[in-house]
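Hey, resending since the last one bounced:
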Amino acid sequence: MTSVAYGASPPLPGWARTVWVLVTGWIAGAVVVGALYVAAVLAGAIGSNGSFAKPGVLNQWPYPDNGWWSLGANLSAILLVVLIATVATAWAMRGTFARFSETHLLLVLLFTGWLPFVAAGPPGGTFGFLLAVVLVRVWVARTDDHLPRRAALACSAVLVAVVASYGLLHPLWSTDAFASGTPSRSKLLIAVHNSARVPVTVERLDGGPLFVSAASPRGVRISAGADSLFALKWAPHACANVLTELRIRYRILGITFSEPLRARPSRVRRCR
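The structure tokens again:
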């Protein structure tokens, strides 16, 4: 019989040190993500949604749900955030942990960081963080592997391209919605902002069954970074807390698109 002697597992840092390393890595990742977000806003790829709608767990952030393309853009944004957080946390763990698996770390950050926080808010995020501390010690630090740097860079470039391609061609965001006119002839004025760095031509704004007819502006041109007001006439006895059936048709760079437009009426009689 032949016996093989395995080396003892390297000692793990203390619990407090593990917490500090994770916090340091997440802060570094948040700085990078914040810088990318600001760059996307300045480039016109991401705007501001005036509906204050809670994002979905895997969709509706940073863009409203608008089919497969928006789903792909939202998933790409989430995966990019998790990938950046993984690289930043791995950077913080070097020198403290003798070995760790970056692949396992990426999965831990996805399932204990993003998902619990979006699904349950701050309590979910707190629970996810505590779970991440445990998993880093009992699972991530038990093996040793690294994400291929070239593959990670290529993946990041693809994710950025998917997000940018959608965001730059879907630049219209609602900023406010408020009532105008007399009670018998009440209209809803919707402020639409063009976050793109090129002009957009709006062809139609449809409000759904809450309104008598759609707004057909006949080619209203919204300049780059500008706002425009569109009026919709309420149907009799209609009311709304959040407008979820608005749909806007527009043309940008010679291409026509149609997408949902979320808005929360700020100065309108709400439904009870």
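The chain has two domains: 15-168, 171-267.

Sorry for the duplicate.
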